[in-house]
């Protein structure tokens, strides 16, 4: 009989995996052979290794476009090996380092290419991948903010939505995420790291500091509007499947989610984690959001109740796109929000058709 944690991961996140770079056949092969959660990271890492090898062979043969594609796909697989695998932190970190290695090597080979950017922040750094569209600058910019278990290596297909419309993208690991999760704990006051990110990016010569938006998914769907509530320089914000008050959601979350939050909030136990989850709230902040806000939510979200999105819309006055069949992140109904979200952002940032 399959481990309930494996079943939970498949049930909650299957459409997300296949939307964000995992081939359907690979997803079925990898998960179909899993019966124990303890084998999750190893199975995904083995599949990632095959794609990485294809990328290394392509580099040796100077098939660079193929190499970039293979390595970016390997990075996504390594990421999904570690995404909530907090039971074995050494194994998790090894997979994560492989994801970073593959994506770093892929960046210059992608179309359009990207570059790694490191932003000093407090005692550590915030690392992101910056990509620019095939147009003359200065470029409007969309900052992509991950959630509890996502990271910048997962965002290739989302970056493409904005890049294709003439916007630059910056996929960033914030506190408690990706490369920052080892030094910096999850925090609720995301206007602080957000401000540091925008301060830094605004100094890049071909980025237009007056046309910057933010997109966030899951817990990033909280971070994005929280940032917007304290930084009037943002011109648009998209919140996808984010909590209004994570403290209310925490007791209802699956074990995998609650334990991942415990580790990444650097909490000693689940009781402490619950207390810290309660500090992630938009109460008293939603009304401070001055830029246009699009809230996307699914009525069938089993991680963050849809009422959380409704509350954000009610208290902020933002536009609410509620999808009746949508799951967490609405990846099972991607056609009903992803293209619209990219068009919405382009319009708010004043992007003209090519």
Task: Give the helix/strand layout.
Blueprint (H helix, E strand, L loop, with lengths): L3 H16 L4 H9 L7 H21 L3 H19 L6 H19 L6 E8 L2 E8 L7 E7 L10 H8 L4 E5 L18 H11 L5 E11 L2 H9 L7 E5 L5 H4 L5 H10 L5 H8 L15 E6 L7 H11 L2 E5 L14 H11 L6
Parallel strand pairs: 3-4, 3-5, 5-6, 6-7, 7-8
Antiparallel strand pairs: 1-2, 2-4
How many domain modules?
A: 2
Give the full name of the CATH homologous superfamily of the largest domain: Alpha/Beta hydrolase fold, catalytic domain
- So what's the overall shape? globular
Indicate the low-confidence ranges by residue numbers. none
The radius of gyration is: 19 Å
Which percent range describes the beta-strand content?
A: 15-25%
- CATH architectural category of the largest domain: 3-Layer(aba) Sandwich
Q: Order of strands across the widest beta sheet?
A: 1-2-4-3-5-6-7-8
DSSP E strands, number: 8
What share of residues is helical?
A: 40-55%
Terminal-residue CA separation: 54 Å
Order of helices and strands: HHHHHEEEHEHEHEHHHEHEH
Sketch the major β-sheet. Answer: 8 strands, mixed
Mean pLDDT: 96
CATH class of the largest domain: Alpha Beta
Structural class: alpha/beta
Structure annotation, total helices: 13
Q: Keywords, please?
A:
Rossmann fold; alpha/beta; eight-stranded mixed sheet; single chain; 354 residues; 13 helices; 2 domains; de novo design (two linked rop proteins)
